[in-house]
Amino acid sequence: MDRGLDVFDTLPADEAREQLLSCCAAPGWATAVTAGRPYRDRDALAAQAREQVTLLPWSQVAQAVAAHPRIGQPPAGDSREASWSRREQSAAADGGRAAADDTARAELIILNEAYEQRFGYRFLIFANGRGAAELAAAARQRLRHDDDTERAVVRTELGDIAALRVGRLLDDLAQAPAEQTPADPTPVDPTSVDASPPRYAPLSTHVLDTATGTPAPDLPVRLDVPGGDGGWRTVAAGRTDAGGRLRDWAPADRWDTGTYRLVFDVTDRLGADGFYTEIPVVFTVHDTTRHHHVPLLLSPYGYTTYRGS
């Protein structure tokens, strides 16, 4: 039995999509791979991961590429995505003869810049187990491609990375503790507990910094509703957790059909030179029984949001 695959196949759809975005930050890809469940084995899931990358519009491929750190510059932090990136680039960062590797790593910085100027997006390559010299040679060769050829290569590399990461995701899920029910639970006196625990609106968000390829923790978010004076009135406020997520924070008694505004305070995240200070996302709720997931993919000079579930 493959416990990791079993857990993945039985996750709620919105949670499965969220988990998959750490493997490939293209919303359409995560939705399609989630829709393909259940999978007979890991090979079938890996094949679907690769296939769905080939079907993405280029705008979502570019979005996924932007979520990866530059080759040779793995990110800091303890998020799942940062840990995977460091692991994948470990051979380039640590292996080989020091002098030769230092030269290749310095060249990679120059090649990254040249590639971005040539194509308009980051140099992406399946770096797992490959040293800095090999990666630099690949970058030099790919700089000679025309646009269509290089886009095809990028899709292949992104698909290989996604396939590797879904396997690692299953490994993580397999190690997660299973929910356990006591064999002989102690009876609970109903008068000793709160009979009315807090209820929350079916609203969540997830903030991913595509400039670093990592989640944005401790980022302030507030929920506003239209005020009587034509302005807005705040009804809930919270901060993203260590994984950049925020859920179970807006009271259910303030959740009804109508217009809402999520406001993301990005001042500290983007720094003093940042272009944005706040990012408002205004949306309408038509069905209060459905879960509304409104993520933010953030970069210094642009952002993307979409409706999840």
Structural topology:
Layout: H1 3-10, H2 13-20, H3 27-35, H4 42-54, H5 58-66, H6 80-88, H7 90-94, H8 98-119, H9 132-142, H10 147-175, E1 203-209, E2 214-215, E3 220-226, E4 232-239, E5 245-247, E6 258-265, H11 267-270, E7 278-285, E8 292-293, E9 296-299, E10 302-305
Parallel strand pairs: 1-8, 1-9
Antiparallel strand pairs: 1-2, 1-5, 3-4, 3-6, 6-7, 9-10
Considering the chains and any ligands shown, give keywords for the structure:
single chain, 309 residues, alpha+beta, UraD-like, Immunoglobulin-like, 11 helices, globular
Mean of all residue-level pLDDT scores:
85
Estimate the strand proportion.
15-25%
How does the major sheet shape up? Answer: 6 strands, mixed
Count of helical regions: 11
Rounded radius of gyration (Å): 22 Å
- State the separation between the terminal residues, measured CA to CA: 30 Å
Count of discrete structural domains: 2
Strand segment tally: 10
The top level CATH class name of the largest domain: Mainly Alpha
Structural class by sheet pairing and helices: alpha+beta
- Name the CATH superfamily classification of the largest domain: Oxo-4-hydroxy-4-carboxy-5-ureidoimidazoline decarboxylase
Q: Which CATH architecture of the largest domain would you pick?
A: Orthogonal Bundle
Q: Ranges with pLDDT <50 over ≥5 residues? A: 180-184
Helix percent reads: 40-55%
Order of helices and strands: HHHHHHHHHHEEEEEEHEEEE
Question: What general form does the structure show?
Answer: globular
> Which fold name corresponds to the CATH topology of the largest domain?
UraD-like
